[in-house]
Specification:
The chain is mostly helical. The chain is 82% helix and 0% strand.
Length: 394
Amino acid sequence: MSHYNLSVFPALVLPLAATLDLEIAQVLALSFWQYLLFGVTALPWGLAADRVGGRILMFIAFLGCGISGLAAAAWVDTPCALSLALAGVGLFSGTYHPIGMGLISKGIKRLTVAMGYNAMFGGLGLVIAPIATGIFNWISGPRAAFLALGVLNLIGLALMALFPLATAQGEVDINQPSGQNGRIGALIILLVATGLAGLAFTGATVMLPSYLEIKGANILRAVSGLWSSGLSGNLMATFVTSIVYTIGMVGQNLGGYAGERHDPYITYLVFHAACIPFVFVMAFAQGFPLAGLSMAYFFFLLGSQPCENTLVAIITPKRLHHSVFGLKFVLTFGVGALAVKIAGWVESMWGMEAIFTALGFTSVSIVATVLLLIVATKKYAKVEIRVDQMRAAS
């Protein structure tokens, strides 16, 4: 639901632009506070979870998102009020990541695989949101899509009451030198990489449905020939977006297993490096080739997430996992919120295609940062081996 909540708005950018008589950049700006609060509140949510536990905060999250979704439906015709309701969605959705990542990293033995499973269910939210939102918008407009968002979160609240949240009691299996856990320098470098990855993730997910709707005319013609009721461009684009995110779910699962079987540092590097050619070509593609390139890009972009979360757990002391995961998601989604402003600015200056060129250079920056992380962690490992040898000799 955390990812579903944040994925409803991108599927409604063009319908809202038509409904509110605004430019695309102006509509994108309505979601800035949603994405910013989703990120920057992760740290205080994490600090709170380290003190009071996760169950009560999950109740608060579902209740807050439910009320905010209903408010968005009520205020869908008023831009300022809609932006405020979206901000509430972001604020309460930000609860999950520091709580969920902390619980997994403290209690699950096969850490990277567990992170992969968790990422897949986040991916499931990404898959369901565009097509469900597209269907609701097709039937009754954006108001119905926001109403569904509120109702689904209130159902989540009911499920939390029926099935109490339990804490796993296993032991994390981290095959790294013991002293490496808690290295501040490596953590800082990794957090820079996660901030850049947040820019890429937010920028790509915010723009993909609209980009597919504008560039996918031949897909719409092909599909419309098989559908007698006459599909809208928005429904087609949201359907294709859901397929793209489904492929991303596969990448998340395989990324988890790859990170378990191979060095998670190298796996993280390879997945981000693989994003580069696909996102650059997306700037020039349209129709079915664009859909295929999008699938490949999101396969690797989302597939990097299990290794990223595993690396945070490896480097961070266990007693601080909720808090540091909160800090990590401040950067991932808080800094990532800048992608909304950047995307609007780039689109107004050079067109929507240029956004994907910018995302390509973002991926290049991520790869350079991960290479620096690998060099830094190897340095730490050598120092610790030398210290262990000196202790043994003494």
